Amino acid sequence: PAAVIVAIDGPSGTGKSSTSKAVAAQLGLRYLDTGAQYRAITWWMLNNGVDVSDPERIAAQADRPVIVSGTDPQAPAISVDGADAAGPIRTQEVTSAVSAVSAVPQVRARITELQRSIAAEARGGIVVEGRDIGTTVLPDADLKVFLTASPEARAARRSGELKGKDATGLAATQQALTERDKADSSRKTSPLKKADDAVEVDTTELTLEQVVECVVTLVEKAS
Ligand code: C5P
What we know:
Blueprint: E1 4-9, H1 16-27, E2 30-33, H2 34-47, H3 55-61, E3 67-69, E4 78-80, E5 83-84, H4 92-102, H5 105-121, E6 125-130, H6 133-137, E7 143-148, H7 151-162, H8 167-186, E8 199-202, H9 208-222
Parallel strand pairs: 1-6, 1-7, 2-6, 7-8
Antiparallel strand pairs: 3-4, 4-5
Helix pairs in contact: 1-9, 2-4, 4-8, 7-8
């Protein structure tokens, strides 16, 4: 097909974002970070005084924030109600609340619809990364990849990003990651799960360049 659609899912710290951006840039495709959209809606809830421990309150407000995603793999952008959200969505506060907000069915329905329309409009094709892209958002994707890595490798990568490389920092990061993945995998609506027809790539022993090369080869075979 002319417009290839690639779904990349997996838990946090497996290199999903770096891989997806690099694959899209290399192949001239658009790129969508769906985690950023869930973070953006979470940021809005926190800013607007919504009690994020109350799913009914979240559901009641789910349609209000206006979320706009840019799809340039070199400079992915996200805004909420016209305000640049790229920085604020990466705070610890948002990271701690995002799993609870993204478990609410009304939030997922809304964001899923947005993701499908962005993918449909991406003329030259798109790489979409997240947790439920291959299973729910784009079940007809041309290629589905599920990235995994050992818990140690994932925590080490995240800590490297956070520059907190001491043993305590590493243990705390690993704990927070494990909890978020447990919440994401066990929620009722559209949990983190490998699609039956996804190709699983274990990145534990691979460099970013090797993972990118592997996925690029898979895309070329699939398109
Ligand atoms: O990818 P990232 O770690 O930024 O995602 C943040 C959170 O957004 C995840 O922990 C998960 O709760 C939610 N998410 C989701 N479905 C997606 C992408 C992200 O529920 N497709």
